[in-house]
Amino acid sequence: RGEGSAQTSVQQGLAKAWCHYEGDQTAAFKDSFNMAGITDLATGRHSVTYTNNMNNAFYAASACGSTQRRGHTDTDSHATTGVSFEYEAGNSTTFTDAAQNQHIIVGDLA
User: Fold this and answer.
1) In 3D, which of 97, 103, 88, 87 has the Cα closest to residue 29?
2) How many CB atoms lie within 10 A of CB 48?
3) What is the pLDDT of residues 30-58, one digit of tens each?
4) What is the pTM of this model?
């Protein structure tokens, strides 16, 4: 049982995929779960593909990246087979390669 009298669905609450990679070098996973590959699309833009696909394209994808300056990461596009991410430096809309990137995916697997 979950909190109070509500039933908790552990399977829906678990991460279905995650990864950690360096984006300012050759894109390669340092560690990952359910990730088949990573592609360097352009400066500050990477896409990942899943080993086991998601059920639909309406899952939640969260990301963060870090450099020696602040910035933010956004998801660019969702597909059942993977998702792409963008990292922007500071308050600008200039893409930059973040040194460390982490992504986590939650939702239903196909």
Assistant:
1) 103
2) 27
3) 999 999 999 999 998 899 999 999 999 99
4) 0.82
